Amino acid sequence: MKFIEEVVVEEFVPTFRTMLAGELRERGRTQSEVAELLGISQSAVSKYAHGEVETNEQVAGDEAVRELVERLGEGLANGDVSRAQALVEAEVLVRQLERGGVLARVHESAYPPIADYDGPIDIHDPEGEFRMTERVRSSVRRGVRALENTSGFAAHIPAVGSNLVEALPDATTIDGVAGVPGRILDIKGRATVPGEPEFGVSEHVASLLLAARAAGSEARAALNVRYDPETLEALEAAGYAAVAFDAEADVEAAVAEAVGENPTADALYQTGGFGVEPICYILGPDAPAVVEAVRHVTE
């Protein structure tokens, strides 16, 4: 595990100080003056000046870094910028570079697992998309593990396979819904999961969840299981509200109609049609909650 703060300390700080010390020296400041302006020792300034401190080429070559070094060097040298202001300006730049800038890229190189995320990362934002996507992936992982350990679940997997999905809070397309790549299949009586959760890999179950949400459902997760009267009875006996929709109609429109009349429904089901397998879709606030509902069916 590599924290971005480590990247700042190990890569940005020595590079930025080296560049700023050099800029101040070029503007006629003495070694002792540079040390006072930067709040470091003269021996440290000497090391910066003689190239004894390792720097990061990516950081040194970044345009925003170079521009700030030049601006602060000029301001500190002529007294237009205070040491406190220089620190604030540098801190602001650090936060900007952590959000999709050079520090984010250096962090990805230092810690490859975060490179899988497609988009700018604000590592410090508690409500940021990066944190939320990882939370959703984690939720689906927990749900999948629970499914694998749910006795009898394999018998409830439909012929087309099951999928467990969970949507980001503001998801409007399947790219905002995480699920199992491929499908969960019954192989020799065991629920078999083909891979780790990903976004945008479930077209059918994700689309149904999105249609339900668009019609007023607050559910963020869904799982499809084989439909039969016993499944419905078990769900209703456990207190879940199930609503039927027309399997042969346009799915989005049929789900919108069913959910529009029953926005708090916990399950949607269709009893089949020409070439259409009967399936029940269990809805819930997150993936583990949906799996908990399935356990009522498998008991």
From TrEMBL:
Keywords: Transferase. It holds the Pfam family HTH_3. Coiled coil: none annotated. Its EC number is 2.5.1.3. It comes from the Archaea. Residues 26-48 form the HTH cro/C1-type domain. One of its GO terms (molecular function) is thiamine-phosphate diphosphorylase activity. It is an enzyme of class 2 (transferase). PANTHER family: HTH CRO_C1-TYPE DOMAIN-CONTAINING PROTEIN, TRANSCRIPTIONAL REGULATOR PROTEIN-LIKE PROTEIN. This is HTH domain protein / thiamine-phosphate synthase. It comes from Natronomonas moolapensis (strain DSM 18674 / CECT 7526 / JCM 14361 / 8.8.11).
